[in-house]
Amino acid sequence: MKSTTQRLLALDILRGITIAGMVLVNNPGSWGNSYAPLQHASWNGLTPTDLVFPFFMFIMGISTYISLKKYDFAWSGATAWKIIKRTVVIFAIGLGIAWFSRLFRTWNSLSDEEISFWSRLGQSVWTFDQLRILGVMPRLALCYCATALIAISLKHKYIPWLILGLLVTYMGILLFGNGFEYNETNILSIVDRAVLGVKHMYIDNGIEPEGILSTIPAIAHVLIGFCCGKLLLEVKDINEKIQRLFLIGTILTFSGFLLSYGCPINKKIWSPTFAITTCGLASSFLALLIWIIDVKEKKAWCRFFESFGINPLFMYVTGALFSILFGNIRFGEGNISIQGFIYGKALQPLFGDNLGSLIYSLIIVSLVWSIGYILYKKKIYIKI
């Protein structure tokens, strides 16, 4: 569909930077040969890669405020239905990506089995008993749904207190549930294994990174973005917008780092300090972008990221599909994947392990951008 709605450019650019970053870090030529900044922290700590997903969730909070403001945050059957429908669509897309990936992996794992084509296809298609239920898209869906319903149900002056309550409650769960241990004794792992089942989880040393309990601080995370959206749109003066965002960003960032001495910054469990710190950094970065783009009017560099920012979820899904297809479609005598051929046969011999892996990631980003740029030029917004 085409749209002529005026958009907040700096927000689109920040959104585009995060989506391009997500595609970049999710598509290395070799997982074992990524540069350190393009890898997640092994447990406690923070790397640039750990920022892209929480930045997007912070932006989603701002976007939720902007979209619901059109309806005066009034509760109605139509508004609630719109929220639920969008939640279901995003969650279903996440499940679809997980199923598509599982289909290819099962097909390839059965390559040496002496079974018929149709039996192999049937086993590859029917993998619902091993389907990962939660993940990036399902987390976005659940957090959007909770934030949007809270926004039309609760007076906004109480939302900061709700955020504090969610983070304090989750901190209590972590403290009394062995929540900072990187193993199956962690309360997060226990709950996920009991409710979801091991076969429906992506397990990292016993931990599901987008698990059930860690959705609590993730909701608080999006609500922080929602509150920042409110502060951003309440004023028209551009300098005051920047000052508010920088102030919020500074307070949250320093608070997060100070509290990290008692509550480590940890993405895998989405610790309260991880939510606070990354929201602070996102707020400061958005303020910087508004200053560059709207005050200094330096916009020429924006076009690349704007192509990602105007259709963010579509671009993320496109990147995920490229990752699945290139990583699983095999050919030739060596039964090599497209990814294996491009990286192992072309890039690695020329550029080495790490640089070759980075160049492969940039190729995928460029492919996704080329699709997004066509939509950008045609002013087509694909709403998910």
What does this structure look like?
This protein is mainly alpha-helical. The protein folds into 2 domains: 1-39 and 298-384, no CATH class; 56-297, no CATH class. It is 66% helix and 1% strand. The protein has 14 helices and 2 strands, in the order ααααααααααααββαα. A two-stranded antiparallel ribbon has the order 1-2. A hairpin with a 4-residue loop joins strand 1 and strand 2. The longest helix is centred in the N-terminal third of the chain and has 33 residues, at 77-109. The radius of gyration is 21 Å and the shape is globular. The termini are close together. The relative contact order is 0.16.
What is the topology?
Layout (H helix, E strand, L loop, with lengths): L8 H17 L23 H21 L7 H33 L7 H9 L10 H18 L5 H18 L10 H9 L19 H19 L4 H22 L12 H24 L7 H7 L2 H17 L1 E2 L4 E2 H14 L1 H25 L7
Antiparallel strand pairs: 1-2
Helix pairs in contact: 1-2, 1-10, 1-11, 1-12, 1-14, 2-5, 2-8, 2-10, 3-4, 3-5, 3-12, 5-8, 6-8, 8-9, 8-10, 9-10, 11-14, 12-14, 13-14
